[in-house]
Amino acid sequence: MKKLSFPDFVAKFPPVAMPVTLGEETHHVFGIENEPLSDELIARFIHPTETVTPDDEFTEYVPCFALDNTEQFIALVWWKAELMNYEYVLATFDLKGQLIDREVIAYTRVGEDQVYRAVATIGDDREIVIAEGSSSDGNALFDPASSRTREMEILASGEIV
Q1: Range with lowest mean pLDDT among 39-43, 72-76, 89-93
Q2: What tens digit of pLDDT does each residue of 28-44 get?
Q3: Which residues, other chains included, contact 32 with Cβ-Cβ below 8 Å and sequence gap of 6+?
Q4: Count of H-run helices and E-run strands, the chain
Q5: pLDDT digits (tens, 9 = 90+) for 111-123
Q6: Which helix (H) or strand (E) element contains residue 28?
Q7: 153 vs 63, 92, 139, CA distance in Å?
Q8: Integer angstrom CA distances of residue 9 from 41, 76, 94, 120
Q9: How far apart (Å, rounded) are the C-alpha atoms in residues 63 and 76?
């Protein structure tokens, strides 16, 4: 059986033009269009330094997209679904497949009688605007006292700051 390579991994992520917004329901589109990642791809490219995959049998990784405006690195976004924890992860790799950086940029998490949410928009200029907040009743409205906006950026080197 052929050992899967980094190009095999990248091929799972269709290129998408920016801007793109990642929110609580966005994963439905990706789940319909993209097959979940195999255990081999997860072990090789998402958890490459760990001898045992730290996830359980209920954890799933769905490839979302590749940013189409990068030249010196490859930027991929996947959705990680666990019990009561859903995350969009942005990871950058050099052209040989070595991880440069990785950040959770959007999520829905349940805990401590709160629902925590973050919605991210990645712009044409590789700037990421993230709106975060929580609600105690599980509805989609943020508690104004808990909401905030923060910004990140993908540098030309692939580092996420």
Answers
A1: 39-43
A2: 677 778 889 999 999 99
A3: none
A4: 3, 9
A5: 888 889 999 999 9
A6: helix 27-33
A7: 21, 12, 30
A8: 6, 10, 13, 24
A9: 8
